[in-house]
Structures are given as C-alpha cells and as structure tokens.
Amino acid sequence: MAATDIARQVGEGCRTVPLAGHVGFDSLPDQLVNKSVSQGFCFNILCVGETGLGKSTLMDTLFNTKFEGEPATHTQPGVQLRSNTYDLQESNVGLKLTIVSTVGFGDQINKEDSYKPIVEFIDAQFEAYLQEELKIRRVLHTYHDSRIHACLYFIAPTGHSLKSLDLVTMKKLDSKVNIIPIIAKSDAISKSELTKFKIKITSELVNNGVQIYQFPTDDESVAEINGTMNAHLPFAVIGSTEELKIGNKMMKARQYPWGTVQVENEAHCDFVKLREMLIRVNMEDLREQTHSRHYELYRRCKLEEMGFKDTDPDSKPFSLQETYEAKRNEFLGELQKKEEEMRQMFVQRVKEKEAELKEAEKELHEKFDRLKKLHQDEKKKLEDKKKSLDDEVNAFKQRKTAAELLQSQGSQAGGSQTLKRDKEKKNNPWLCTE
Q1: Helices and strands per DSSP (H, E), number in the chain
Q2: Phi, psi dihedrals of residue 13, rounded to the nearest 5°
Q3: Burial 178-214 (b: 16+ CB within 10 A, else e)
Q4: Does 376 score more than 80 pLDDT?
Q5: What's the pLDDT score for residue 320?
Q6: Is 248 exposed, middle or buried (0-12, 13-18, 19+ CB in 10 A)?
Q7: If pLDDT is split at 50, 70 and 90, which confidence band does 417 have?
C-alpha cells in the first residue's frame, strides 16, 4: 500500500470523545507564547518610493527611534536596494527588524526597468529560504528569515493620479509581497484634494488589476476595525521625529508658518491608523500571508520547473518520493541517451579522424614516392654528369701525359744536336769563323 493511501486512511474517521477530567494540553497556547517570546520575532519591511518622499523619516517615526542611514541622492545611475537589520526590544519581546529601502527609485530618465531590481531582490529572498528548506540538515528555527513581509509603497502627493511607474511597479509586486499604499507627505495637499486623490488612486488600482493587501476580516476580534481601515486605504501619512510642545504635552509634529501638523492626530493624517494596522494588529497576519501565499506561490512555481508535481497525468495523488523516483528515472534515461549520443558522436568523429589520417598518410606516401623518384632521377643525372666529367678528366690526363712525353722527347733531341754541333766546332775551327 502506498504511503499516501496510508496517510489518507489515518486522517479519515476521526472521532470526538469526551474527557473524564483535566489533562493539561489546554496550556499549549501558553507554551507556544513562551517559546515564541524566547525565540523572538522578525519582521521585514520594504519601502518603495521616489527619493525625497520621507521613507526614512516615517520608519523612524513608526518605531519611535532613530535608525542609522545615509541620505540618498538623486544621482544614482540605477535602482539599488539597501538593507539594514536592527534588534529592537519592547518589554520582554524582541524584534529583529529589517528595513529595505529603494535607493534611486524614479530618479532615472528611463524608468522602464526600475521595478526589476526590486522583483529580483524579493525573489532572491524567497530562493534563499527555499534552498534552506530543501537542505537535508535544516536549521529553520535559527535561520534569519529575510523574506519581505510588508511593502510600504510611497505615493507622491500630486493630487492628480498615480504615475505610470507606480502602477507598473505595484502590478509587478502584488503577487510577491503584501503591498500597503500610502500617500507620503500628505500635508502638502488640502483635505478636499486628499479625499479626491484617495478615490482616484483606489479606482486606478482596481481598473489596472493591482491587488493590494487587505486587512483580514475573518477573525471576529479584529474584523470590525480591519473592515473599517480597509476603507481608509491608501493611508495619508506624515512623518516627523521632531517633538514640539502642544498644550502641556510633547508631541511629534511638523511646524509650519501657518500652523502645526501633529503626526499622531487622526484629524491631521492617518499615521496612527497605519501604525495600528501594520504593527499592533496585523503584523502576524502579514508574516503568515508572506509564507502561506506569496512564498508558497514562488515555491510551487520553482518545484514545478524542477519537475515536481502533486498529481500524475491521470490526476491521481503523487507523493514526493514517487515524483523523485520518476524524475530520477527520467534523468537517468536522458543521461543514458546523452551518453549514447556522445558515444556515437565520438565513434563518428574517430572514424572521420581515421579517414582524415589515412588520406593524409596516402598523400604523404605519394609525396614521398614523388620525392624519391625525383631524387633518383637527380642522382642518375648527377652520376651521368660525374661519369662524363671523369671521362673528360681521364682524356685530359692522357693528353697531358702525351704532351709531356713529346716535350721530353723534343728536349732530348734538341740537346743531342747541340752537343754534336759543339763537337764539330771544336774539330773544325773554321766553322766558328764563318
């Protein structure tokens, strides 16, 4: 029997039985809380928006602290994502907070690919978690989860409509992250303009099919407040770390010549609503949505690319082991096929090389025979020439010998005539007088 069938049978036929007394497993929620508190929590925020919209100031205001960071300039050649992680402590609860900001977003003349570095960064965090999850020895309980839980998308307070860059970017991100749109520096436009601007933004998001994060209403304890806050999206916020004395209290506010804007005054902006929804009410839901929705979608797509599926071609359940075995057999079959192709290719190349070598050898033999014949012809010519030269030398030597012989004979004959003449002179002195 397959493991999937056994697991299905175990899950069927579950019965509810009463307890005769107290057992103690009602303390599980307390155990879970204590364990979670001891381990601490992590929360990762991505701030997307053009330079100068007050992203860093709003983060400082939200968490009531001063995060270190260098101010961004408008001279960046492209979009860069800057990530900073901080350890925060409130009462006995620890929070590892990661803030990722988009440096240079919207500063380029050509903004067509401005969203790509953001998408690549989000996918890289999903991939890192997936690789950790697929390890044989996993340490997920100590692994620093860097997946983005919330994306605060800062919208410039133009009062007219969303920019095409904003629509394209949010459309590319809505399936990968929980998007919470906010109108930055909302004190730059009037109340009536702000109301119309919110309606315009919501209409454009719906018309372009952009899915923003909706605060959950399935939990009765927060259904009412979340349902109310969903109607206030996008939030119009103001950030300030400067505290001014208003009445008898010190409050975060912005001072203008015409008056004071209080950050935590709901009549002035939606900062309190954002803080309530993001941190105090729905932080865990944002973490859960990231894991159960966005990460699961990425994981499913990646595993399907790798060939893993939940069902076979007949739509029957298919276990991971069976998928692995099928994929392994498929891989081995492809490997053998490639090996056979490579072997045949190798044999073919060897044959071609042998034919080339034989042809080259034949050409070398023919060339050698031609050179050998040419050498023999040249040798014969040289031998004939040498023989004729030898004959000429011998004939010359013979003529020389004959000439020397004649010369020696002539000189001997001349010498004897001279002696005879001298002898006659001596005998006949009259010959000298003559």
Answers
A1: 12, 9
A2: 75, 30
A3: bbbbbbbbbbebeeeebeebbeebeeebeeeebebbe
A4: yes
A5: 66
A6: exposed
A7: confident
Nearest alpha-carbon partner for 103 in 125, 86, 118, 124: 118
Q: Give the pLDDT of residue 431.
A: 47
The separation between CA 178 and the C-alpha centre of its own chain, rounded to angstroms, equals 24
Q: What is the 3-state secondary structure (H, E, C) of 262-275?
A: ECCCCCCCCHHHHH
**Three-class DSSP labels, 170-210:** HHHHCCCCCEEEEECCHHHCCHHHHHHHHHHHHHHHHHCCC
Hunting for tokens 């270190």 — which residue is that?
Answer: 68
**Residue 167 to residue 113: CA distance in whole angstroms:** 13
Q: Residue 136: what residue type?
A: I
Per-residue tokens: 62: 């939200």
**Does residue 1 have a pLDDT over 50?**
no
Sequence length of the chain is: 434
**Exposure letters 343-377 (e unless 16+ CB within 10 A, then b):** eeeeeeeeeeeeeeeeeeeeeeeeeeeeeeeeeee
At 288, the amino acid letter reads E
Tokens 């069927």 sit at which residue?
Answer: 12
| 244 close to 250: Cβ distance less than 8 angstroms | yes
Q: Which secondary-structure segment (H or E) carries 358?
A: helix 320-427
Question: In this model, does residue 425 exceed pLDDT 90?
Answer: no
Distance CA(272)–CA(259), nearest Å, equals: 20
Cα 16 to Cα 394: distance, rounded to the nearest angstrom: 137
Determine the 3-state secondary structure of 375 from DSSP. helix
Contacts of 82 (CB under 8 A, 6+ apart): 69, 100, 101, 103
Cβ atoms within 10 A of the Cβ of 21, count? 4
Residue 7 reports pLDDT greater than 70: no
First to last CA, the chain: 163
| CATH top-level class of 36-306 | alpha beta
Alpha-carbon distance 300 to 308, whole Å?
9
The average pLDDT across 137-164 equals: 91
Domain ranges of the chain: 36-306, 320-387
Confidence of residue 107 (pLDDT cuts 50, 70, 90): confident
Tokens of 198: 């919110």
Residue 104, number of CB atoms within 10 A of its CB: 21
